[in-house]
Amino acid sequence: MSNLSRNWKLDTLEADILYVPIIGNLESGDAFFLQSDTNTLYVLQITVGETHPVKANGLNVIFERFSNIIVNNCYLVFVTPKNGQLLRRPQTIVTQRGMECIAQSVAVDKFAKNQWVLEYEIPLPVNTKL
Q: Coil, strand, or helix at residue 119?
């Protein structure tokens, strides 16, 4: 994947482009992309907290932007520091009002079942005190 775009508000989006919305511009992910060889949609959410509820509406908006492609799988990937605080359990999908989303769409159901944690190590400058 060699393409990067901030223009995610188009009616339909293309596969194999990493979309990185402007901060505060999308409520359910910090970046997302659709891998063309498997038609798998990945939403990346960066977090440092113990929990990170995700809004169903934002997941639906992302899913619907790929309306020209049959999406086979959806993965919600929480990117967190190595040995971070994020609890290793599925995060809650919530409504606009912060209530747990019970009546789920096809997209939200796929994301709810496929949640992953990606840990990364943050290199600290030599003279950093913790």
A: strand
pLDDT band at 4 (very low <50, low <70, confident <90, very high): low
CA distance 76 to 79: 10
Q: What share of the chain is helix, strand, coil (3-state, %, to 5)?
A: 15, 30, 60
- 70-95 burial, b if ≥16 CB within 10 A, otherwise e? ebeebbbbbbbeeebebeeeebebbe
pLDDT in tens, 35-89: 999 999 999 999 988 999 999 999 998 999 898 889 999 999 999 998 888 988 8
pTM of the predicted structure, to 2 decimals: 0.83
Task: Calculate the alpha carbon distances from 113 to 22, 25, 49, 92, 108 in Å.
Answer: 27, 25, 21, 11, 9
- The three-point CA angle 101-98-92 to 5° equals 50
